[in-house]
Design a protein that fits this description.
- The chain contains 13 helices and ten strands.
- The chain is an alpha/beta fold.
- It folds into two domains: 176 residues, NAD(P)-binding Rossmann-like Domain (Rossmann fold), CATH 3.40.50; 122 residues, N-(1-d-carboxylethyl)-l-norvaline Dehydrogenase, domain 2 (Orthogonal Bundle), CATH 1.10.1040.10.
- Strands 1, 2, 3, 4, 5, 6, 7, 8, 9 and 10 form a ten-stranded mixed beta sheet that branches.
- Helix 6 links the parallel strand 9 and strand 10.
- Helix 7 packs parallel to helix 11, helix 9 crosses helix 10 and helix 12 crosses helix 13.
Amino acid sequence: MLKVTVMGPGGVGGYFGARLAAAGNDVTFVARGAHLNAMRAHGLRLDSEIGPLHLHKVKVAADAREVPAADAVIFSVKMRDTEAAAESLRGLAAGGATVFTFQNGVESADRIGAILGADKVVQGTARIGASISEPGVIKQIGKFARLDFGERDGRPTARTTAFLEACKAAGIDAHLSDNIQREMWMKFALLAPMAGMTALTRGPIGPVRANAQSLALLQSAVEEVVALGMSLKTGLTAEDAGRIMKAIDGLPKQMMASMAHDLLAGKALELNGLSGAVARLGKQQGVPVPTHTFISQALAPFTDGTPQA
């Protein structure tokens, strides 16, 4: 049994944390607002195509400083909250906890490591279509919910093996990666384009794929991230653009990225860590990224939430 703290129990943290808790692990969810209150009162429910689950009672805290100890931290807060959330984990990290980061983007581990120490962080990616549908409820669509994680040098360690075994025992599709940098950039090359396009169109991926003009824009967005990843020597190759487009084609037609859900809800966006990061890194590397530059400019007024008239 692992002691697990979940920082950010939304689509990623809420789903995987609930599966771990249902399997008997000691899981504490660090939440806030209406989601916190609902979980305290009614537990946590997964409305999941993989299998529904209702934990009628869960351990919840408003601040990680309230949690006495943890073996592993599932770190899945929104990117703009990274530094504040990492600061709150100083006590747990000092006590031996490892932070497994499953945030979007490709800069998470460095940002957390700058506060807690690089040796306290294990990089990972989550592939799942899930979001908070109402306080205390996580809606997951599609038949996939996968975690990949690994040490920077690609070698298995006691901490990654223990977390893997806990995930497997909970029925989670989890994998140890010997090249987590490539895994992260493969996801980034799918997520940044999908997030940008579903946010721009305010709708799911299905209509984007079905229209020749929007499909061409999506293709350009994917190719730009792959070119950027190649320039940064992340392990991506030119052939990966086709693989990623095939993966996008296999997504449920009703799927929207979390950034699109946030936009429709009037919440702040992770734009700066997705298309904004592609635009910023592209400029630094001298790699043309006009599609992501356009996406980041078009959505800029909504970065901090729906602007007031």
